[in-house]
Amino acid sequence: MEPVFVCPVCFNLDPDRCPERSPPCLLDEHRLNVAFSELKRSAERGDCLACKILCVGLESMQESWDDGAESENEDQILLVETSRLHIDLRRGHSLRVVLDNVGYETTIEFYTLSKDDCGLIPAFGIARPVSSQLEISECLPLVTEWMKECSEKHHSCGQPPESNLPTRVVDVGQIDTDIVYLHETKDSETGCYMTLSHCWGKEQIITTTTSTLQDRKAGVKLSQLSKTFRHAVEITRGLGIRYLWIDSLCIIQDDRLDWEVESAKMAQVYMSSQLNLAATHSSSGKEGCFGERWSLDTLNQTELNVGEDVAIEPSDETEGHYKIFYRHALHVAHDHFTRAMDYAHTIEDLSPLLSRAWVFQERLLSPRTLHFHAEELIWECASGISCECSRLQNHKWGDPDGLLEQRKVDQLKMMYSSVTSPEMTDAQVLDAWLEFVTEYCALKLTKQIDRLPALSGLASRVAKRLPSSEYLAGLWSQDLPRALCWQIQRPYENRHLGFRDANPGAPSWSWASIWNHNQEAPYATYGLVQTRGFVADSRCRIQSFHNSPSTANPFGICGTVRLSIQAPLIEATLFVTEEDTNEEGNVRNLVSFKGDSVPISPDCWDIKQRITNISNGAAVFCLLLAHFKLSDRDWMGQYPSQHLTRKEKLESEESSSQLLGAYALVLQKVDDGPTYRRLGLLVHRKGGGWWENAPIALVTLI
């Protein structure tokens, strides 16, 4: 038998013949690192068909880049002799080649449409073509396929049943009609319906108000609807479902009581939906769900076209049969849903919906969501995700196979599914809630007063798992005092004011009380207690709490919420230092006690990040809550800290190798009584010595 030729450059694109896996973070994927010059010489020698196919595709892509650069009068030469290629071989998937130049990186994907077209090179796996323009005619068959697979094969999902209809739904009518109706349901009326997640945008969209309610019930012409609403109606009709729930139409927008009652039902509305449609790429109602596809290079923000796939076929009969396509890899959508990279700079361009706070709970609560991303369709359900190009086909949440980067994702969808499981302990549910809050607080919201209502649906679901716990303005009584240890973490470049409104809708000790003017809520995080651990001080006791909801939604806007805590309390002095005199100078907010000064994390700050609402040199009070353990090397270099990974957490009980840190609330006295308002969080890494002989005080936080 004649020995098989093995190419010394590409190893026949066979993972079993490759050298060691590189990088080691990839589990079922091999990465070959090759110089383009070597690949080109191999192709020119004619020894290796795989090298030839890769060269043809890469050089053709370079020609298109050259043409684009000429039209834009820019230099965009990416492929040169010294270019480094990273060839990613993942079994059962398309092949990807990453071009890594200085300051620039782009990825080309090679794939076939069937096994018969890959020739003798199975590394060119099967993928779906993605058209440059999405039409409903190509959308419906794929969505129907995903729905069928999800209902029949996904144990975590199952067949979506009929359920009680929401108070109001849009009756989409027949396919050939140009009118829809707002339908007010009767008690216990059941049926199947879909929901819509969308950005309202700055332009006025159609709504239901007390004055237009009867008109909406009498009928609304499709021409009156925004493009997003019209497309949602088309999809609902195409899937054979009669009803569609849209917030702006199904909640009476100028009726406060109706809004409160319906927002309290939000969890059930999305949980019972057959399918949630997410206009993920649209920043307003005028952009719709269908339309031109596009992508964005993540490193230099170059706009890329989608749908320009080109085929490579044999140049003569000696090469046998193959038909390999190549295209720009559609990786941005994958990154947005698997968290394989930091995508903050692309999310506003390609998927603005994902940056909105209201949509956070809609994604988690919905059993199935279809995302209309700028690049491609994405399917998200309780079992995993799939995509139109098929790279993420049946990617399972927490799958032990696949990319380690994808497994490291804080998979909130999987976490939410677990929260409702009786196998999950209360402690695990509370840990999950801290993850939810940290993620949620990074999202955008137009009105501060909505910070708790926009999370109320998720809170109502978690409440069913914590029947003995009271919900207190975004915190659970069962998790006190740990839940008080949030801190505001701001990016360095964020020079916006952080403040509390006169009526923030939450007490000062809740993360929901902090706000700023640019829609980006200050980033409240529980990162420290999650990485360093939390051991409540034995002298700290939650004495009582008083909660009087101000609305019909017990998980929404707060009324009067007071918290009484008995714990060690010391009086200290606040002062602010500016290390530089220029406008961008570093500011340190510190508290001083008996000659020892420690930085604090303030809740509110001015444009230079100085603590506000209190004068320099004023008296403050530090209430000890808990302790944490850390090594000698970790406490050096005071707060703010570099977070430890979970793996690095020190779990040993041997005090000889550890120091004991302390968490404390920094408080401002409100009146002559024992009433205080929170100013910030103090993380004292040198231990709890400040409070060693401190008096135990009973304080009331408002």
TrEMBL record:
<protein>
    <recommendedName>
        <fullName>Heterokaryon incompatibility domain-containing protein</fullName>
    </recommendedName>
</protein>
<dbReference type="Pfam" id="PF06985">
    <property type="entry name" value="HET"/>
</dbReference>
<dbReference type="InterPro" id="IPR010730">
    <property type="entry name" value="HET"/>
</dbReference>
<feature type="domain" description="Heterokaryon incompatibility">
    <location>
        <begin position="193"/>
        <end position="362"/>
    </location>
</feature>
